Each structure stands twice: as C-alpha cells, then as structure tokens.
From TrEMBL:
The lineage of its organism: Eukaryota, Viridiplantae, Streptophyta, Embryophyta, Tracheophyta. It comes from the Eukaryota. This is FBD domain-containing protein. Gene3D superfamilies: Ribonuclease Inhibitor.
Length: 328
C-alpha cells in the first residue's frame, strides 16, 4: 500500500535537480519533472493540510502551474499553499517571471494561508474573492509600484497575518494596508517607499502595538507620515484597559525611523491618550522638520480644544530644536 498517497502534507520540489542541470537543458528537465509532479498530485488521495510546489518558469508559461493550483485547492482542499519560483542566477528578475493566473485562482474556501516566492506580480486579478485567506506571505517579490501591491492586499479582507518582502520597480504610488482583522504585520525591503498613511485608534492597545511594530521595523528616512486618529464609539469590553503614558513611552526605543514631515488628522485635543502619543513623537526623535495638525475642519468647540492642545505641544522639549508645529 502506498502510504504517501494519504499523507496530509505534500512537497513537490524540482529545485535540487535543476540546480545541477546545465542552463540549456533547464526547460526540458523541468517539463519532465513537471510530468512526474502532476502524477503525484493526481495519485494522491484525500485532502491536504499543506502543499509546497517549487517549479520553473516553464510551468506557468504552459499552464501547468495553474492546473496544479486548481487541483490542490479545488480537489485536495489544501489549507496552506506555498508556491516557489525557481530563479537561476543567470535569469533573476526579468519579465519572464511575471505571475499571470486566472481570476479567483486563490478563492477556494478551504485555502487559509498562501505564500508566494520569487515572482513578479502584475495585478490583483488572481487574488479576487479571497475572503477566506488569513495568512499571506509575499517573499522575494517584485512589483511595479506600491499602488499595485495595495490593490493585491485589498483583495484579502480577512487577513490576520501579512509578511511582505518586496521590491518596487518605481517609487510611484502609495502603499495602503487597510484591514481591521490584522494581528501581525512584517515589512522588509520596502526602502523605496517614502510616504506612509496610517490610521489608528490610540485607545486600542492592539492597534497601538501593531503601529509600534511597524514603526520599529522601519530603518530609513520617511519624507511624509500621515496619521489619522480613529475614535471608536463602542465601549470597551470588561477587563480591557486602554493605553497609557507608559505604553507611549516605549513607542520608539532605539528606533532608526526619521520622519521629515508629519501630518495628523482628527486629533482630539481633549483626548489625553492622543496628546501623550503625539508628545512622544516630538520628544523621542522621529519627527525632524515639521508636524502639521489639521484643525480647520472641526466645529468651533472641537477646534478650540485641538488648538489649545497644539499650543501645549509647542511648549514641550523637542528632540529636534528647530522642529516646526503648525495647525492647518
């Protein structure tokens, strides 16, 4: 009896063979290996907890990769899928690495975790209707610009874990990560991005922790950082506490993040937690040149409170003495 046919974890890896194959024979060797891998998938019985497929460029040029994905998700109900594009040193990042798949490729209800490695992503089509996915890993990925990645991430409305190691071909566009379910975010190789837009409920410890982790991972200069303060109307659950000054005091320990210009929106002058947070931004070195705080759109009473709070911020000792604070 072939016990392997009933195993819940499957790894199909042609890399070790291709690494010892002369470059002129890579295509032929990969096609032969792909036939064997197809037989393995077809002969497997039952469902899969996880499946890892490491392939060569030929397999998504001839549609084999699409067929594999359809089989392991639609027929095997794979929960955790990893796709790795084998990139020989002679090829690296060229147009041939473009990942072009059918719309809704990763939309099967059983698929909860997806990892892609070594591809050029050109758009979000293959990721539409992916409300089932909880974990997304994009490793060693090339994307034209940040806005394309924003479109890809927007397709995953239920993501709880996002790991990004990507390179952008151009510095244009804005990276937006808007997800209320997010519990873990890891960013690396994103030095091409020089502008951030973030929204946070400063009274929610979970959101503050995510913000803290994101800022501490950044080891570069950011030209502009925009923060929108959210004010949730729902009351806190029993036993849940808000953030405090001690939390904000540890926001930037040993951080290498420097922001030239910062803009703050919906800043509530009467909110002590928001005031404590902003004061730490001024005193713990991140902001270098200017901090602009929007107050012009507030009703009179709220505008008065906000501008009074800004006046107090101006009196605080600043890490950068020439830092300018203004309302707009």
């Amino acid at each position: 009896m072939d016990v392997w046919k009933w195993r819940s974890h499957l790894v199909l890896d042609m890399r070790k063979v291709l690494e010892t194959t002369p470059k002129e024979r890579l295509h032929r060797a990969s096609v032969q290996l792909a036939r064997s891998m197809t037989k393995v998938i077809n002969n497997h019985r039952g469902h899969l907890e996880s499946c890892t497929i490491q392939h060569y460029i030929s397999q998504y040029k001839d549609g084999t990769l699409q067929s594999w994905i359809d089989s392991v998700t639609g027929l095997k109900h794979t929960k955790d899928l990893t796709l790795i594009n084998y990139i020989p040193a002679i090829r690296r990042y060229k147009g041939a690495n473009l990942l072009s798949l059918h719309p809704d490729t990763f939309s099967h209800h059983s698929l909860s975790s997806l990892s892609l490695c070594g591809f050029n992503l050109i758009g979000p089509d293959a990721f539409s209707k992916c409300k089932n996915l909880k974990t997304l890993n994009l490793i060693n990925i090339v994307i034209s610009q940040a806005s394309v990645l924003s479109g890809v991430l927007a397709a995953f409305s239920s993501l709880e874990v996002i790991v990004l190691n990507v390179n952008f071909l151009t510095p244009r566009g804005v990276l937006k990560i808007e997800n209320n379910n997010l519990k873990f975010l890891q960013l690396s190789s994103l030095n091409e991005i020089d502008r951030w837009k973030l929204s946070v409920d400063i009274t929610d410890p979970k959101e503050v922790e995510i913000l803290k982790e994101a800022l501490l991972m950044w080891t570069n200069f950011v030209m502009e950082l925009e923060i929108f303060f959210k004010h949730k109307k729902s009351h806190r659950e029993e036993g849940e506490c808000s953030t405090n000054d001690r939390t904000h005091a540890k926001l930037f320990p040993n951080a290498d993040l420097y922001v030239y210009n910062m803009r703050l929106y919906n800043f509530d002058g009467s909110n002590e937690e928001e005031f404590a947070f902003v004061s730490r931004l001024l005193m713990q070195k991140p902001v270098i040149l200017s901090m602009m705080i929007e107050t012009s759109l507030f009703p009179p009473a709220k505008k008065f409170n906000a501008e009074a709070a800004v006046a107090k911020l101006m009196e605080l000792p600043k890490y950068f003495k020439n830092l300018k604070i203004e309302c707009f």
